[in-house]
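Lecture 7 notes: from sequence to structure.

We start with a single chain of 108 residues. Read the sequence below before looking at the structure.
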Amino acid sequence: MGITKTEHFTTTQNELAILAKAMGHPARIAIIEYLLKTESCICGDIVNELPLAQPTVSQHLKELKNAGLIKGNIEGNAICYCLNEEGFNKLKGFFETITSYLTTKECC
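Now the structure, written as tokens:
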């Protein structure tokens, strides 16, 4: 496998790519949707919502957290997760730029 050469891209481009990659799995979308419905939750609650094993859910949570899309706080023996506003604001800005472009330009 080749080297990605991320140093040839801007910090913003690399950050957006990490965010997009983290969202590139249906289980992660399901986790985000679940977190949208709840104030916060314990990992076990998420496991009960998905047709996946606990270690698999934990790996998806780790990917979302590493990308900056969710935050987790340890409360006793459990970790409570919630959405990370900062990560989603970056995505929002990117998609607002695209939406603005699409509403003002005509394509072939």
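The beta strands are 41-42, 70-75, 78-83. Keep this in mind for problem set 3.
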